[in-house]
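Posted in: Structural Biology > Protein-Ligand Complexes

Title: Requesting predicted complex, guanosine-5'-diphosphate in pocket

I'd be grateful if someone could produce the 3D structure tokens for the following input. Sequence and ligand are given below.
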Amino acid sequence: MNELAQNHCHSVRRRLLRGALTSAKVSSRFSGKGSWPMSEAMSSPAPRRQQLSVNDYVAGIRAGDRTILARAITLVESDSRRHEAQAQEVLQHLLPFTGRAKRVGITGVPGVGKSTFIEFLGCLLVERGQKLAVLTIDPTSSRSGGSILGDKTRMERLCQLPAAFIRPTPSGLSLGGVARRTRETMLLCEAAGFDTILVETVGVGQTEIALRALVDFFLLLLLPGSGDELQGIKKGIVEMADLVAINKADGENKLRAELAKQDQAAALHYLQPATSEWPTEVVLCAGLTGEGLPEIWQRVEKFYRELEPKGVIARRRREQSLAWLSDLIHDELKRRFYRDARVKSHLSAMQQAVLRGEITAVLAAESLLATHQECHSGSTGPEK
Ligand code: GDP
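-- Reply #1 --
Done. Output follows.
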């Protein structure tokens, strides 16, 4: 082995060792984040865990081992480069076993009743023999306590069911980070045999757009009442929905719910449906009592029954995959650009020059990009 190869091996070994240590820390930090009863997650500290190989992860997930699934999700969530490489290898092996679940997104403002709705619907689906994974995205909660404890107490009954798996996506990530982790977690759950994936997100604007790009069917929950301002929803969200449900349509709310339904139906009349072959409708429901939930699920099933044979869902997924690939490339190029030492040293001066009106923004951008390109082509050879 030549000197260069030896050095490389040493550095790989060092990285593996560092990675192993980090992995053990990460694993114990997130242990028990699956659908285990709270007492299990909160009891004595997790014992030091054994490292798993790519094969261990793949075999465990295919066998439906939830502990390994939870650890694989932790791997996917890790920021470490080594974990990222291992996670990608695991995902690559599992790719042939993904794509068979129904992917349904549920969104709505905080307090609209999402978790109550999902708890009821989830129990209903499990009763019908489905294996259900619920992934929750809450960009506002903090990792320590907020999200994990919150979701466990929010969906207590569902947590107890062995056929249900609830996993909050770690918060504190960029939107791109959340979308990527959720997508990869979804793939892991599919490979583990879950046939329905519900992805819940708090409707605060940008996350729903990211969620729409992950799922086949998108359900928007609204409150009884009318007007977008009252609903606290951003314009454009209704346009992304395959079904709008006015939730809490019970008791004294019934009349207001009916008004909201009419209002939304009238608004939808002028919009392009989110899925061209599928008219978006407005229905009433109450997650607390379960009223309207079996009918909502019937619509979801109808969506798949009618659109799957026409190739609509496969087309949507292909488009989503290509959009995702494109996003990843853009993100990485941007990251490389801003981390480039030469760009860093010129950026501030260029910004000032633009602010002082000495150079147009276009020329400044071209100059910075050329600087980046120069240093890049120095190492990779001139562009053809
Ligand atoms: P989330 O923030 O969207 O997840 O909303 P939650 O599911 O936590 O519900 C917020 C509040 O609304 C809670 O106090 C629930 O009990 C209540 N709630 C949820 N669903 C219904 C419903 O169908 N009817 C009524 N009346 N209240 C509901």
